[in-house]
Amino acid sequence: MHHYISVYPTSKKDKIKTIEVDDVNLVPELLDGNHRVIPIVTGGDEPVEEVEVPEIIPILTLRSSVLFPGAITPITVGRDKSINLVRAVNAEGGILGAVLQRESDVEDPAPDDMYKVGTAARIIKILEMPNGNLTVILNGLEKVEITEYITTEPYFKARVTALRDSTPDVKSIEFEALVDSIRDVALNIINVSPSMPKEAAFAIKNIDSKRGIINFICSNMELTDEDRQSLLEAPGLLARARKLLEILIREQQLAELKNQIQERVKQEIDKQQRDYYLQQQMRTIQDELGDGADADIEKMREEAKKKNWPAEVGETFEKELQKVERLNPAVAEYSVQMTYLQLLLELPWNDVTKDNLDLKCAREQLDHDHFGLDEVKERLLEHLAVIKLKGDLKSPILCLYGPPGVGKTSLGKSVAAALGRKFGRISLGGLHDESEIRGHRRTYIGAMPGRIIQTIKRCGSSNPVIILDEVDKVTVSNHGDPSSALLEVLDPEQNTTFHDNYLDMEYDLSKVLFIATANNVANIAPALRDRMEMINIAGYLLEEKVRIALDHLLPKQREAHGIKEQEMTMTPEVVENVIACYTREAGVRSLDKNLAKIARARAKQIAFDEAFAPEISMKDVEKILGMPKFLKEEYEVGGMTGVVTGLAWTEVGGDILYIESVLTPGKGKVSLTGNLGDVMKESATIAHEWTMAHYEELGIDPKLFETNDINIHVPEGAIPKDGPSAGITMVTSIVSSYTGRKVKERIAMTGETTLRGRVMPVGGVKEKILAAKRAGITELILSEENRKDIAEIKPEYIAGLTFHYVKTNEEVLQLALE
Fold first, then answer.
1. Better-scored residue on pLDDT, 208 or 780
2. Is 435 a catalytic residue?
3. Cβ(147)–Cβ(160) under 8 Å?
4. 426-453: b (≥16 Cβ within 10 Å) or e
5. In the predicted model, what is the mean pLDDT of residues 626-647?
6. Is the model more confident about 206 or about 404?
7. Could you tell me the CA-to-CA distances from 354 to 391, 464, 791, 793 in Å, in that order?
8. CB crowding 714-740: b at 16 or more within 10 Å, else e
9. Statement: residue 261 has pLDDT above 90
10. Which of 209, 230, 661, 725 is catalytic?
11. Which pLDDT belongs to residue 15?
12. Of the residues 143, 768, 773, 783, which is catalytic?
């Protein structure tokens, strides 16, 4: 008879081994104390041995182990009652009954606490344990059923009945199939369950006995005590096999499901561990390099503690910073968040510079940097005065408008210097995207804050002077209307809570002094114009330009070209000649360029060690700048009929304009030439109609209207012209042609006329006077209502000019015609 046993060590150094033994009594000798044994089974389908179970036997209560017939199982005994029982039975060489108690935690079970069916067993060996317990190796003999308990002290004794398992027919196909299925399923469970000893598979494959394989699997599989007890109580081997296969299939499904879950969890944990490991490596490398992500975050947190910002901004910053801490530095969102947090830290928020409230010093600064511009300077000094008295003021929004080159933009720097504030400039020319003002939302790739927030960040204070350059050149496109976005920026009542899309928080712009610049007010949106305080900077008179050239531009060009003061000087007469013959503008930009050209020529002479006179003469100017580009706007039109000098305003300043008319034989047709706009054509029509209506007072023969055509022409026909201010000039020209009266010499005029003959005021008076004086005009005819404009001009600049203020066309004709 053969016995199979799997012996596995308590030490990890030794290997598990499955051995075959001939006598079960030899098993204890095979163990050296460092190994433990799993139950064994006997070969053959007959009973283990023919044994007569006594009618009354001692009963050993088992806490959590079920002994099957034919199995050898080590049992640990610790209770005094059980130890006494084992020693007594071992001394007598008798048989005991091993019965499972229903609840394993009951310390002193009563007969009702134990199952009725157990196994009769013989003690093979008792091993004394160091802790006082005994390890008893029991050999299961036969299944028994307890009929009644006889005694309970010193240990249980009970009357039992032997229950021999009925063996199915050896040739039973069902039993064969059951045993094969049990073997396969058991092997599968051993393969998928990490807790099962793999050597058990060796025994399962080699045990030929059907009874043995069933009892071996019942003993060794990880089953609950209830399942094992139900298998023991099964009536016969066939019923046990059926029950065992049912339990094994359930256990197999549970094991597979558990493995699937563990595999999924393992994969997820492995990925997390891998990511964590890589992140830790990256952070370690970054820390070694001194630019670790954690270090950056902590550095930001330290900087945030020093920031002077509103409480809600601090809360938002901390919330966003915590979000960054949870992010992997390798993901794209990490850098987006870090950029946003960096912006929050770099913005000045409540940090402001202290205003310089020394008004005399401020006035000196403004006068030093710019000549003239008295109205603007006064307005800025008023602003400073209010801050000095009140301590705080919502900054006004100033809009400086006027022709190019008069110093609108550079005035902003002077204002900042005078106030002691930081200076920023935003060019709005050609801006067509609303997001440039308001910023992009952070959800977009490449999002950034608007130009307002960027400029404030660059300035480093919340009260800078910001120039909004070319506010009249903002364009509308399918990306929105930037001028509408500027409404919130430029409204002192709204810009305390300016909302930038990128920042996604309100920012106070009320301390910023915005100065907008524009060339043409008509191009500014009305709503935007209404929010700004409009200050006109008109063109400079000739005398002003000479002062600007000598006091500002010439020293600047000398410094820019490395020329000493004694190496290059100019007289006012030469500068005046440069202005008159080489520039035609309201500002001084072209003058500056011409002076730069002269300075370069002088620098070349110095570098080549050429001989030269320090003072620039007219001959030098002609040699450097070439022949004069512009003749003085003075034509010999005096004493001519039908040709009148008018005054015009252009974007580059004022200009003189000639209105010519001539009569030709015809049928009374009026023709207009010279690229005239609608308003100017209407002025000509009104002038002609008024003349026809007053032929008697003017002494005109009415037949002339029927027998002559009149052509009215404005020279330089390629240049578009429009506006009503040539009205009285056209009246004078038409009356001169019809009456033959000549126009007086060196007289010019500007004013709108009505059908009633009333003379209306016009704009651009200062620029027009500049043009008239440049052309050598001595007398000017203006509307009475333009008298106030002349009062604003310094008397020295209009010296030599005679002004006539009129209310009606008759007064104009009386002054202009001989």
1. 780
2. no
3. yes
4. bebeebebbbbbbbbebeeeebbbbbbb
5. 77
6. 404
7. 11, 10, 38, 36
8. beeeeeebebbbbbbbbbbbbbbbbbe
9. no
10. 725
11. 44
12. 768
The position carrying tokens 């009249």 is: 472
Q: Residue 275: how many CB atoms within 10 A of its CB?
A: 12
SS (H, E, C) 520-571: CHHHCCHHHHHCCEEEECCCCCHHHHHHHHHHHHHHHHHHHCCCCHHHCEEC
Strands 653-665 and 643-650: antiparallel
Helices within 655-748 (DSSP H only): 678-693, 695-698, 703-707, 727-739
Query: Which token pair is 195?
Result: 């807790």
Q: How many CB atoms lie within 10 A of CB 208?
A: 10
Q: Each residue of 159-171: b (16+ CB within 10 Å) or e? A: ebeebebebbeee
Q: Which helix (H) or strand (E) holds 76?
A: strand 72-77
Distances (CA, A) of 12 to 34, 196, 229, 587, 626: 11, 16, 33, 99, 106
- Answer yes or no: 768 catalytic: yes
Nearest to 546 by CA among 680, 371, 392: 371
Say what percent of the chain tops pLDDT 70.
90
Write down the pLDDT at residue 5. Answer: 52
Average pLDDT for 562-585:
89
Q: In 694-813, where do the E strands start and end? A: 708-713, 747-749, 752-753, 759-760, 779-783, 802-806
Our CA angle for 281, 283, 286, nearest 5°, is 110
Q: Residue 204 belongs to what H/E stretch?
A: helix 199-206
Sequence-ordered list of residues with C-beta below 8 angstroms from that of 817, at least 6 positions apart, any chain:
732, 735, 736, 739, 741, 742, 743, 744
Residue entry with tokens 């979000």: 323
CA distance 33 to 341: 68
